[in-house]
Each structure stands twice: as structure tokens, then as C-alpha cells.
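General statements about sequence and structure are easier to judge against a single worked case. For one protein, we set the task of working out the C-alpha cells from the amino acid sequence alone. The sequence in question and its C-alpha cells are set out directly beneath this paragraph.
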Amino acid sequence: MRVTAKAVAERAGVAASTVSRALNSPGRINEDTRQRILDAARELGYTSSSTSARTAARKGLVALLVPDVTNPFYFDIIRSTQEQLRTAGFMQLLIDTGESHSTEAETLAQLESIVDGVILSATRLDETALREATARLPLTVINRQHEQIPSVLIDIRTGLTQAIDHLKALGHETIAFVSGPPGSWQNHWRGKEFEEQVRRQSLTPIVVGPYTPTRTSGVAAADALLVTGATACVAFNDLLAIGVLQRLRQRGVRVPDDMSVVGCDDIFGADFSAPPLTTIAGDTEQAGRLAASRLISILNGEPPRVGTTLIPTHLLVRESTGPVASR
């Protein structure tokens, strides 16, 4: 006997229309109510008719949107999501949104009739646009914390704590954060965590930027760093950090003797830079696999498992950090 939405509603103590919103537009309902409905649906073995219809009309295509396909950070995510989706019978459509909020929003609107679902990696959408997208398409997000959307976050906090401890032990007292793109939730979060952790260690935080998260932007970032009085910096990502290293070398600034540099993400090539880059590392392959798996579950008719899965990080110490030079 087929379980109905009415039965789920009765079990959860809500209206049948609330059950529909909870299963198909989770961002539009109170979290406690939604969780109660999901529990009732699982207990009864309920599958919504809209989900069944989606399964029957499956296109076999899932889009992965990234801000910059040339950034090595996304290489492992692209590979791991593709492998996970292929195993489940889906083809991956890779789209570069060019670090643009508007391009990402326009692309999502165009994809509604083309794909079964979407994975957003480091989305540049604001909260309103993200909620609207969730109401229109099944999706998961990578590197964005959200309690009402299935999400996976590479949690820099432990790695950042280790980085600040490391720099303090080397004698650094003034540390700068090289800020990334202003429209990035992740950049705002990383900058906030940086300032809190530096102040907690009774050190002085400085912020320079924002900058686009590319190697070429590291030129301006390095020039700005040299007038701050900072003896060390933590960059939003490794590309910015590598750009900083290259510019400092051009200007005759010795790393790490005159300036210590820490990156974030441990991209391919971080250990080949000159000098090899100290960086905060997390398992990006795992992030991709988890995001794809959670989307596949939704596309297979399971209730969305909203909330954020955290991927831990750690500090990899290489040759771009060292003791403060005596003056």
C-alpha cells in the first residue's frame, strides 16, 4: 500500500501542503518542522509523487558550477564529483561562472529544464539568490555553510589555529590576511575566523584587499603587504599566496627571512613554488564525493539531508614560513 503525504502529515502533526514544501523546497520551512516531517517520511517509507515524477523524467545530467575552472583547487572536486555521478548513472556538465554572481544566477535559470540537479562549488550567490535556486532545482553546495541546504564545508578553523600558533612560535606579532573576492561567503568567513584567532593569541591582525583569487592579483597584494608592517601573512587561497611569493622575489624581499607566507587549500603546485608554500590543507576529493552523494540521494527520491558536513583541515609546514628576522 502506497504511503500518502496525508499520512506523513498526520504522523508529523502538520498540513499536507507543509509536507510538500518540506520535501521539495526545504529552504522555505522552519527547520524543526522540516526535521519532524523528514523523520515521519522515513518511518513510513514515503516517496513524494513529485520526486517519483522527476525520477521518471530523469535527464541523466548534473551540472557542476565552479567560479574559475583554471584554479587547481577545483581539479579534485571536478574529478571526484564526476566519478560519483558516473557511478550513479549521471553525466556531469562542467560550467565556469567566472567569479560572477550574475553569471551564476543566469546559468542556474538556464539549467532548470536541462539538468536533474546542480552542485555549486564556492558559490558566489547571496542568501536570497541561493534560496531561490534551491526552490527551483535540487542542489548541494561545496564550501558554504548552510543549515537548510545540503552542504559540505572544508573547515579551515583547525588548520588556521595551527597556522597562527606556528607563526606566533616563530616570533611574528603582526599578521596580515590577504582577502579574496568580496562576494564570497567563504572569504568573509575565513577573514572573520582569522581576525578572531589572531586577536585571541594577543597578536595584531591586518587585512589587505579584497583581491580576485588569482596568482596575478598577488602582485598588488604583495605591494600592499610591504607597507603594513606585517611580518607574516595568511592568504585567502594558494593562488594569491603564490602570486605574493613571486612579487616579493621580484622586489628583493626574502621569504621567509623578511616575510612569512601561508596559503590555503594545498593546490597542485603549492609544494613546487619558490619557496615551497606552507598551507592549510583539507580533503577536497572527499568534499566533492560527499556533495555528489547527497545530491544523488535527493535525485533517487530520498528526503534532502540538509545541514553542513565539515571536512577537517591541518597545516602543512613548508619553507615559506620562518622566524622573524632580527632588526
Observations:
- Residues 54 and 299 are 8 Å apart (CA to CA).
- Residues 5-44 form a domain with the 434 Repressor (Amino-terminal Domain) fold (CATH 1.10.260).
- The mean pLDDT is 90.
- The longest strand covers residues 61-66.
